[in-house]
Amino acid sequence: MCTLEKRDGLFILTITGNDEHRLNPILIDSIRAALHRAKIESESMGPTALITTAQGKFFSNGYDLSWAFSDPDPVQVQAQTRSKLMSKKLRRLVSEFISFPMPTIAAVTGHASAAGFTLVLSHDYIVMRKDRGFLYMSELDIRMKIPTWFMQIVKSKIASPKVWREVILKATKIKAEMAVEWGIVDSAHDSAEEAVEAAARLGMELAKRNWDGKVYAENRKTVFADVMAALSSDETVGDTDCNDSHKAVSKL
């Protein structure tokens, strides 16, 4: 589902395969396992950074809704059991990115939609290819309410309310150059290879700053304290008991 390699002192996490990289428990757990490995291995390294990228046409096309709605037990479907599980696991993954002890860079080499767009925004920096791919918060077009925690990430990472309107209330498919203009993406590049190379250059520049990873993570958590608080619940899947859901997410 994903691989982790060390290249020039950086970690490269790649979501593998040519499918849509839908975020189901298997893929989310694979990404989390790679993050855990990078965190452990970084303890014996100098300052470093993590780059997340993907193979194929998609970075991630969002939640695996087909899996969520295909539970053979109608009672479980009614209770949104699978949707709750996906939401809890993704919220935990986002929490781990915010708590991660090194700078993170998303090298977006394909489409990133809905929850996939949220995953991109969970990184500190975003670089994107401009010859193919878009960022797309698709909830309005697919007649689904956007979770409050998605919106908190959007507000924390995108400065302009006018851009929030384009992203959420117009469901605009945002290509790389437009994303740079709107302050969503840091740089746009001619190909997937150039986007990853730009991410690597940025990662090496950040690593040279010789920051303490634990301090970096604590400062990031302070910056995004509102996001961390919002991750405790997801009203769109009926997970609204903040105290209980926070405990459940922390155990995943």
Output the number of helix runs: 12
Content-based structural category: alpha/beta
Rough outline: globular
Q: What gyration radius follows from the Cα positions, in whole Å?
A: 17 Å
What spatial order of strands do you see in the largest sheet? 1-2-3-5-7-9
Q: Could you give a short account of the major beta sheet?
A: 6 strands, mixed
List the keywords:
ClpP/crotonase-like_dom_sf, alpha/beta, six-stranded mixed sheet, 12 helices, 48% helix, disordered C terminus, isomerase, Delta(3)-Delta(2)-enoyl-CoA isomerase, three-stranded parallel sheet, 252 residues
Describe the structure.
The chain has 252 residues and is of the alpha/beta class. 48% of the residues lie in helices and 15% in strands. It contains twelve helices and nine strands. The chain has helices spanning 25-42, 65-68, 74-78, 81-98, 115-121, 148-157, 161-169, 176-181, 192-207, 213-223, 225-230, 242-251, and strands at 2-7, 10-15, 50-54, 58-60, 104-108, 111-113, 125-129, 135-136, 187-189. A hairpin with a 2-residue loop joins β1 (2-7) and β2. α1 (25-42) runs parallel beside α4 (81-98). It is globular, with a radius of gyration of 17 Å.
Fold blueprint:
Elements: E1 2-7, E2 10-15, H1 25-42, E3 50-54, E4 58-60, H2 65-68, H3 74-78, H4 81-98, E5 104-108, E6 111-113, H5 115-121, E7 125-129, E8 135-136, H6 148-157, H7 161-169, H8 176-181, E9 187-189, H9 192-207, H10 213-223, H11 225-230, H12 242-251
Parallel strand pairs: 2-3, 3-5, 4-6, 5-7, 6-8, 7-9
Antiparallel strand pairs: 1-2
Helix pairs in contact: 1-4, 4-12
